[in-house]
Amino acid sequence: MFPKLSLRSMFHGAGGGNDIQWCFSQVKGAVDDDVAEADIISTVEFNHSGELLATGDKGGRVVIFQQEQENKIQSHSRGEYNVYSTFQSHEPEFDYLKSLEIEEKINKIRWLPQKNAAQFLLSTNDKTIKLWKISERDKRPEGYNLKEEDGRYRDPTTVTTLRVPVFRPMDLMVEASPRRIFANAHTYHINSISINSDYETYLSADDLRINLWHLEITDRSFNIVDIKPANMEELTEVITAAEFHPNSCNTFVYSSSKGTIRLCDMRASALCDRHSKLFEEPEDPSNRSFFSEIISSISDVKFSHSGRYMMTRDYLSVKIWDLNMENRPVETYQVHEYLRSKLCSLYENDCIFDKFECCWNGSDSVVMTGSYNNFFRMFDRNTKRDITLEASRENNKPRTVLKPRKVCASGKRKKDEISVDSLDFNKKILHTAWHPKENIIAVATTNNLYIFQDKVN
Amino acid sequence: MSQKQEEENPAEETGEEKQDTQEKEGILPERAEEAKLKAKYPSLGQKPGGSDFLMKRLQKGNYKSLHWSVLLCVDEMQKYFDSGDYNMAKAKMKNKQLPSAGPDKNLVTGDHIPTPQDLPQRKSSLVTSKLAPRFKRFSCLSLLSSWDYRHATPRPANFLIFL
Question: Does some domain include residue B84?
């Protein structure tokens, strides 16, 4: 049933973050330290089969990698990812009405499940969502009567015989074309898009509103959440992320800058301003400080594949919520608690506003998120063990097992540990993705994409 | 000074007091950081979640403006009077010199018709991503139909018909 997977990585029995030995597989991108702003990776996403991996960058470009089909005889490692297609998704624009620039940075990419030979994905910048079709062409017609091979038209009077054109193989060409452009529906910056399990509709969320679109219809969308107060003076929170439930096409959640998550049911009413469930962990008022609200702001929300749980990422932790329990998360994992004593400087250098994403593995047993110094963390929900790894070119021999890293919060620094003060806060891993079926992960540093996989014997 | 003492003391406690300390430590680092921040920036707004800050954030899309009070908002102004203003600001940021307008340098404003060479450069979007270095950039116009620059669309008469 799963011919490609080794026993170790079987869906159900997948070991935890620590049972797996992660190895370097590939790194993409330039080595130079001087990073052009356009090359900053802004989103990473596997498609539903895991065969394709898409990245978006600040320059509005999308690069899609495809996994090589494995040679079944030599299964030393899983197939490598090589460039499949690249295109300019969004261009910089200028909003003449408001005199504001619209960045071309790709905020999110979401794949549609494959229905035919072509692949489809949605990509969005701050204002416009586009549906891209990526299709392959590996045959070309040859032997036209009225056309030369290079496309020039022949003079019909020179044609003396007729021949039947045939299709001949050609070098694979991958074409990307924009099939739909969903524009002008968002006053504020789009932070999320999420495709519904009905595969016909999707939602897009900005700071104050969430819109529901149909993939075929570009000239209108439904507004399903609007938290803009009549008087903007009363504004206290903004929407930070939104996602559709993986199985129930009527359910979606959105998270806020105050650390709450609201679950809405579209069957209840057309405008889902009133939530069906509110997930909020009560805070000890005596613990409150200036930073409390900032660090409680949720930067990402992701449903588990099963649909029973959802994971939220705030500045210092990852929380797993059971959809059946609203008053507190069922699991909380500290990502980098040692930063709590550095909040002042993190506020000054803006790092406290960094938006980290998080992701589940295919079996929902391990979750992963990024940190600073090009570290990323994995938490095994079953064994309760966690591991910190580094995305660095130093360990770039394929099949080199990554060494776990440790940050020393204070006091005596042991050998191989890194002290908090020597962490590089410019090297942040905000975007990570986990292959939906195998233990392959894609980790984006500022301008490089690392691919790691578990050790295959 | 007293701040430092507060932070040092918990580290010295041991044993049974550890649990109690850990609870205290949960509060102290954040509060200590808060005190540091307020010491540096006394004019920082009392209510960090106040609506003025959120408004600024919505305009700029930057969460930081949520929390800085107006005085400390450095170069967050992203408003431009018009597109010309915007282009000039971009050109200045890149330290680009506008190419001189041809042989006659003492032009009176309005006498010269602008040409593409004279205008400040819009940032180029045609560079291939470094993640795909050897890939030929696929050029695609934003037309709502598939566009293949290598082959002209075959005319219907030339299609193969399988019977």
Answer: yes
